[in-house]
Amino acid sequence: MTAAALSRTAAGPALISMDIGHDAYAAVTDPNTAFWALVDKNRVDEALADGPLFDRYREKADTFARELHALRFGLKPSGVYLNPTERCNLNCTYCYLPDTQRSGGSHMPTEMLLASLGQLRDYFRSVMPEGRKPRAIFHGAEPLMNKTAVFAAINEFADDFTFGLQTNGTLLDAAAVEFLTARNVSIGLSLDGPVAGITDATRRTWGGKSVHGKVLAAMDKLKGYGSWSVITTCTTENLPFLTQMVELFHAREVPTCMLNAVRCTLPGARDVKPADGDMAQAFTQALDRTHELYRETGRKLLVANFANILIAILAPTARRLMCDISPCGGGRAFFALAADGNLYPCSEFIGLPRFNGGNLLATGGVEAALASAAFRPVIERDVDKFAPCADCAIRHFCGSPCPAEAHEMNGGMGMIGAFCEFYKEQVSYALRLIADGKANDYLWDGWDEDTETTFDLGC
């Protein structure tokens, strides 16, 4: 993707042209507001020079800027990631948690988890609209290693939170599935390969045993349930097999998957980081295959992380995930509770002590953490203020994620994340789908029911 500035006025916006690799269309954007339009690639100058596009956009630019600013800086948290144990029964090569925690860490006592949720309930009631439940996601390490506390919490606070659980699937027996599905808990699994040998390259037990078959068995138990998904973490080990992954997911009627680029916060993940170009090629081929399967069968397999990029372009304030914007959702839309009761901007930071915002039950609660020196660098990370993001046409469709990996891998919050060129190609691919009228095929049915069109030039 290449970009070039086309128009600027002393009192008005700057529009930038982008070659998105489409035969007929180019894109123009104002990165300051996340505005975009598709124009005839052979008539870009004509479309912008004192024409209706630029004039109409200039009338709306201030409104768009205010909406984007509110999304970036005006949110209050509405969710929490709950880490009820430090321990995991797997030793995945790319995990963002230190192996000393995962192999010998502690469980959060049931009483402590219940007390924490009581305090969190009171906090969310103070900042969220009446009648709206916050989301509480039990997260890694492996929450089902502390199943007694987790299930007690779900029972106790069923009326106060919308619960989810992210698990490696190996402990998801029939009784656990019955308990969780009866309470409409969303369930996320992880699988990194279409066959055991590929999965085992990055995800296996501490003793080196395969877990591939157990995850497939868990998927079979969840077939037909409306609220489950599978994450594939994309690494050098499985990148050539992403198309086979989506074929497997579609065949097993997985409603939603995520093909996540590996987070490079800790050194082990960097050892399996794909090159950006390789990641982009494999990712878009897998997306192409999901579309072919949809056309063949009439059944969608949603790739949620890509769908979020599409929505970020089509309706920026309607996006569901908050990783692909700056500042990200850490400490703004959500935060994380560690097994020792300490608060962090996101689970990705739990292995990094300097981002510990204090203990929920002992040091001032959520408000104190949000205002802490540990949280502020994450909450205030702003791609408008550092290179090369400040001059990038897609910076508010990308957000230069992830702040944890930017800090640990590249040396600071004012640095880019790990997959800059991949995100550029992902946005170009999304814009090509929009140009070809295919975007809805990659999105949830009814995704736009609560959206409002505020700019439609029709050119």
Question: Would you summarize the structure shown here?
Answer:
By secondary structure, the chain is an alpha/beta fold. Helix content is 37%, strand content 14%. The strands form 2 sheets. It has a 9-stranded mixed beta sheet.
Secondary structure category: alpha/beta
Strand content: 5-15%
Largest sheet: 9 strands, mixed
Order of neighbouring strands in the sheet with most strands: 11-10-9-8-7-6-5-12-13
Distance between the termini: 22 Å
Uncertain stretches of 5 or more adjacent residues: 1-11
Instruction: Work out the radius of gyration.
Output: 22 Å
DSSP summary, beta strand count: 13
CATH class designation of the largest domain: Alpha Beta
* Helicity, as a percent range: 25-40%
Which architecture of the largest domain would the CATH scheme give at its second level?
A: Alpha-Beta Barrel
Q: Give the number of domains.
A: 2
Query: Based on CA inertia axes, which overall geometry fits?
Result: globular
Order of helices and strands: EEEEHHEHHEHEHEHHEHEHHEHEEHHHHH
CATH names the topology of the largest domain as TIM Barrel
Task: Quickly list its features.
459 residues; alpha/beta; TIM Barrel; 2 domains; nine-stranded mixed β-sheet; four-stranded antiparallel β-sheet; 13 strands; 37% helix
Could you explain the architecture of this structure?
This protein has 459 residues and is α/β, with parallel strands linked by helices. It folds into two domains: 2-73, no CATH class; 77-459, TIM Barrel. 37% of the residues lie in helices and 14% in strands. The protein is built from 17 helices and 13 strands. The strands form two sheets. A nine-stranded mixed β-sheet has the order 11-10-9-8-7-6-5-12-13. Strands 1-2-3-4 form a four-stranded antiparallel β-sheet, sandwiched between helices. Strand 1 (2-8) and strand 2 form a beta hairpin. It is globular, with a radius of gyration of 22 Å. Residues 1-11 have low confidence and may be disordered.
